[in-house]
Specification:
The structure is a single chain. The protein contains 11 helices and no strands. By secondary structure, the protein is an all-alpha fold. Helix 3 crosses helix 7. The longest helix is centred in the last third of the chain and has 47 residues. Helices cover 72% and strands 0% of the residues. It has one domain.
Length: 246
């Protein structure tokens, strides 16, 4: 008997946990992320790690930027994780702690650590993660893992990560040390940055549409109010009418 969870099972679980409707542009983002996480979860070679968690958290937060109502974002993220039997608080905590480590290390020390050249004192429990990735011949690489790597570099130095040459050199060095597919990382991150630009443009369009619709509703409401409550001036007879009646 095959007990492997299907994508439909995961989607059903998600919409049971989060019952409020999700705007179309964001629903696509959520479901694509959900499917990607699902397919990884049922892969025998996949194992959770904090770099992957950082990729998940960052992807969700950036692609869901501007979502309204804001308070629903927490519910959506929690449902996303719980629908796959993951703990959302672990994802958040690991992502925050790892990013804080990258910021504290800076560009050179972070790359040296990820490339297994040095072991900083602050690495702590995260050192085991790096060692396990490098020594695992069956490590399951994913786009979300690549995004996690990118965010670490971004956290270490937001300016240097924008320099294509510096970024590619850093990623190449890390990929070689951790036995990761260098070319795939580069392509996945190019697509990630491109999608961020597209979603930002779509969000602007959606914001304009929402604003235009709001103004239409206000205008219709005002017109309806004027119909129901004619102005006092229209109801009061003029002086000429009063004189003619007398």
């Amino acid at each position: 008997m095959n007990n492997v969870r299907t994508v439909s099972d995961t989607k059903r679980a998600f919409y049971t946990l989060h019952t409020r409707p999700i705007a179309s542009i964001y629903r696509r983002v959520v479901e694509e992320l959900m499917v990607e996480m699902h397919l990884l979860s049922v892969n025998a070679d996949f194992g959770y790690d904090p770099i992957y968690a950082l990729g998940v958290v960052t992807s969700f937060d950036r692609f869901m930027q501007g979502y309204q109502p804001e308070k629903d974002k927490g519910s959506i993220f929690n449902a996303l994780c719980k629908s796959l039997d993951y703990k959302p608080e672990k994802y958040r905590q690991d992502a925050e702690e790892l990013l804080a480590l990258a910021r504290g290390l800076g560009w050179e020390k972070l790359i040296g650590w990820l490339a297994k050249e040095t072991v900083p004192d602050s690495a702590g429990r995260w050192q085991e993660t790096i060692s396990q990735i490098a020594s695992n011949p069956s490590f399951k690489y994913s786009r979300l893992f690549a995004i996690g790597l990118y965010v670490l570099l971004e956290g270490a130095d937001p300016d240097l990560v924008k320099d294509e040459k510096q970024r590619e050199q850093a990623l190449q060095k890390i990929a070689i040390a951790l036995n990761l597919p260098e070319e795939k990382i580069s392509k996945d991150l190019d697509l990630y940055r491109s999608n961020l630009d597209k979603i930002a443009q779509a969000q602007i369009v959606m914001k304009d549409m929402i604003e235009a619709e709001r103004k239409k509703r206000e205008k219709r409401a005002q017109e309806q109010q004027e119909k129901e409550n004619p102005t006092e001036e229209a109801e009061v007879p003029s002086e000429d009418e009063t004189d003619s009646d007398s």
